[in-house]
Specification:
With about 220 residues, the protein is an alpha/beta fold. About 35% of the residues lie in helices and about 15% in strands. Strands 1, 2, 3, 4, 5 and 6 form a six-stranded parallel β-sheet that branches. The structure holds flavin-adenine dinucleotide. Flavin-adenine dinucleotide binds near residues 9, 15, 146, 189 and 194.
């Protein structure tokens, strides 16, 4: 299996960093091919603008999706965007490793999506959801939180984690055709004992050993 892992955390020694390295090692050891994008290490610029492109459709009015369509037809993506699109096109499984920030993706990862998931190349012309461009590929969110698991249950003070993740699962991943695997969630690693964190890392690497045969989630429309 070809696996593409995206890491969005500014600190290499963080628990996210540990989850990322554990995944790279476990998947490689299991014989999978792994490609990565460590967005902070790459100093990936999350701000979308004309520098997404080497082509120009309309020099007078910048409309991103129009430029994306034009770039899709004219090999017009900037190299840093083209490289990321090609990694997505290459993989069978994509994993995003990130801390939950304000109930969502860290800005650098959201900006990566804004720039890389380009119309024409990754969706559009009716190629969405079940007919999406990335049909046949799978994706998984691997995230950490500050809050404990009880805060993210139905009725917990933050509310159901499934609902919090739905805009990412449905609005980005399924929209572009991915099947979504159950998220890997490390709740409040900073609150845990060292031994509990070690156990979390071990259970993640265990899961990764058989991830090639995991069935996707039914995220559903609700
Ligand atoms: C802008 C912002 C917004 C936020 N919004 C939210 C939110 O909406 N909801 C929410 O719940 N939280 C939120 N948080 C908190 C955030 O989600 C957590 O701080 C983060 O998920 C914790 O993960 P980390 O990788 O940063 O942990 P770290 O603090 O880096 O690590 C936790 C512990 O793990 C240890 N560790 C590292 N490597 C290993 C290893 N190999 N083995 C064992 N232990 C190890 C570290 O030493 C540390 O003690 C927010 C934080 C910020 C900055």
């Amino acid at each position: 299996m070809k696996v593409f892992i995206v890491l969005a955390h500014p600190e290499h020694q963080s628990f996210n960093g540990a989850m990322y390295r554990a995944a790279v090692e476990a998947l490689s050891a299991a014989g999978h091919e792994v490609k990565t994008s460590d967005l902070y290490a790459m100093q990936f610029d999350p701000v979308s603008s004309r520098h997404n492109f080497i082509t120009v459709k309309d020099p007078d009015y910048f409309k991103q999706q129009i430029e994306e369509l034009h770039a899709s037809e004219n090999y017009g993506f900037a190299e840093e965007i083209e490289r990321e699109i090609q990694k997505i096109e290459w993989c069978d499984l994509m994993i995003w490793q990130f801390p939950l920030w304000w109930f969502g993706l860290p800005g650098i990862l959201k900006g990566w999506v804004d720039r890389v998931f380009a119309m024409g190349r990754t969706y559009g012309g009716g190629r969405i959801y079940a007919d999406g461009v990335f049909k046949g590929k799978r994706a998984m969110l691997s995230l950490t939180t500050g809050g404990p698991s009880t805060a993210y249950e139905k009725g917990g003070f933050n509310g159901d984690i499934t609902a919090i993740l739905r805009p990412i699962h449905r609005g980005i991943l399924q929209f572009t055709g991915f099947d979504v695997l159950a998220p890997q969630i490390a709740y409040g690693p900073v609150r845990l004992e060292q031994s509990e964190r070690v156990t979390l890392l071990a259970s993640y690497t265990d899961r990764l050993k058989t991830i090639a045969s995991e069935q996707p989630l039914d995220v559903g429309i609700y």
